[in-house]
Structures are given as C-alpha cells and as structure tokens.
Amino acid sequence: MQIWVDADACPAVIKEILLRAAERTSVRVTFIANQSVPLPRSRNLRFVQVAAGFNVADDRIVASIEAGDLVVTADIPLAAAVIDRGGLALNPRGELYTRENVRERLSMRDFLDQLRGSGVHTGGPAAIGARDRKAFAGELDRWLARRARSQQPGS
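Request: output the structure for the sequence above.
Response:
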C-alpha cells in the first residue's frame, strides 16, 4: 500500500506532512502533476509529471492505484473514482471520503457549479488552518497504522 498525491493543488503544508511521513515510516509517496513539483531526494518519494490537460493527472492516478492505496486529493470526482477502484481518498482538510459521503459531495459540487454558472458568487474554500492540518495528520496516521498492521507476518 502506498500514497498517491494529486500534486497540482496540494497545499505546501500537507506536502510537508507527507514528506515527514514518508521518511518516518518508509511508505512510498508518489506525487503526480502536470507541472514540476520539487521534492527532496529520498528512496520513498517519487514524482511523475504528466502532460497538461483536463484530468490527465487524475486518470494516471486512477490507473496506477491498487486496492488499499491512499490518494490525497481535494478533487471530488477523483476521490469517487479512487473509491470505486478500492482505494481510499483523503482531502487536505483531513476528511476521509467514503462511498456514502463522496456521492453527497459530488451532488453539492454539481449544485455549486450550477450556481456559479448562473452568476452567483459562491466564494472559495478558506485557507488550510491548524485544525485542518491536525485532522489530516490524524487520518494519515490512522492509515499508516493500518498499513503497518497489514504488513506484519501472519496478517
């Protein structure tokens, strides 16, 4: 099990949490983006640059994951596709997407898109705060603990 990051819009503070987790636990973390993402040299980190284009990075992530992998993304359609493939999706605010809540989030996203299309200003998300960072780190730690248990002999 490894971590995949939709890196085009990954907040720097979340990237730092992931970098520390990779070194601390030796989990493989792969950042996928259509623009360069500087990473420190590490055997646990990998960067894959994809061509520019709508959903190119998302499609690469979905094609690459295996059941149980974790994908870090704020992209709700990508999260839904990851869940359909047996992966887990975690947004940078620490919300773990599930089969149940991802459908609700997709509906809300579509509704807000319709509002924006009709000229209503819906605003954007607030900046990532301390509570978001703590929630993200907590969910990441829970996934890492499950991963460690699954790699123990006899599991």
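The CA atoms of residues 34 and 53 lie 8 Å apart.
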